[in-house]
């Protein structure tokens, strides 16, 4: 399991520091697809896994796609998991492929019973192949499906109940959806079980463009999201937390300062739980 501390998403500019054993890095996340296929990338993943608790985070599975899961993709992920024995494996609750074409955008799903049943079957298929629990992440959206008839939090909670999967709760995405779609981020958190389902939390920054909020992972975490994070820990208890920063990547010290702030909130939650 991941340690109950604040980690960072590891990106290329900071790999050397991580391999050298930077003392302020508590755990790391890497994108699974970046280290598929063995070779130098696979060796890098093994070296990192030997030094830090490691989370493998997928962006290309397409859990919500209609066509069958990509067998080669799932096979590559399974091989990687067996090689590095990660502390966690996660994937986005998104649609990103159709008719053999794959898009880089993590497109949101309709929150309907039909979609829920479909995704549950696919999550179970992935878990059976991996031999371990999958964490499923909520995504940001600019548009909502007009057929939605299940709340975002309720959808995640029922998916976890049917499959035994965990939830990787992206608090920033909840806030982005609140701004873009008028959804209630706090209500989504309240719909999730208080304990046992939320196994990891993501924090990130966003930008505003053409009247929309874009989950860009290119800015510090905003104050409103820090507030929601505090509420999330109050509800779910101390939870491993990751700082994501994927574009306009800052110096490592800046990234670690964000992680240190999350760690202070986590530490206060631990003290409160123990009181």
Automatic annotation (TrEMBL):
It comes from the Bacteria. It holds the Pfam family MbnB_TglH_ChrH. PANTHER family: UPF0276 PROTEIN HI_1600. This is Uncharacterized protein. It comes from Rivihabitans pingtungensis.
């Amino acid at each position: 399991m991941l340690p109950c501390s604040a980690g960072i998403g590891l990106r290329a500019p900071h790999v050397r520091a991580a391999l050298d054993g930077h003392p302020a890095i508590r755990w790391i996340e890497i994108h699974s697809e970046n280290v598929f296929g063995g070779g130098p990338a696979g060796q890098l993943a093994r070296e990192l896994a030997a030094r830090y608790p490691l989370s493998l985070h997928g962006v290309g599975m397409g859990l919500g796609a209609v066509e069958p899961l990509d067998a080669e993709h799932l096979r590559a992920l399974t091989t990687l998991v067996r090689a590095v024995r990660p502390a966690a494996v996660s994937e986005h609750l998104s649609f990103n492929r159709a008719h053999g074409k794959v898009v880089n955008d993590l497109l949101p799903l309709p929150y309907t019973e039909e979609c829920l049943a479909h995704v549950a079957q696919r999550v179970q298929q992935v878990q059976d192949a991996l031999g371990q629990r999958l964490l499923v992440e909520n995504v940001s959206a600019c548009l909502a499906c007009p057929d939605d008839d299940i709340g975002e939090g309720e959808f995640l909670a029922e998916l976890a109940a049917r499959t035994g999967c965990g939830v990787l709760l992206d608090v920033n995405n909840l806030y982005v959806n609140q701004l873009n779609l008028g959804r209630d981020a706090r209500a989504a958190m309240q719909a999730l079980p208080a304990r046992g389902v939320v196994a990891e939390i993501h924090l990130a920054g966003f930008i505003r463009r053409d009247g929309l909020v874009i989950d860009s992972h290119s800015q510090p975490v905003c104050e409103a999201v820090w507030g929601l994070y505090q509420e999330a820990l109050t509800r779910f208890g101390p939870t491993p937390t990751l700082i994501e920063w994927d574009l306009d990547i800052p110096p490592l010290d800046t990234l670690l300062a964000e992680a240190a702030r999350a760690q202070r909130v986590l530490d206060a939650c631990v003290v409160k739980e123990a009181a």
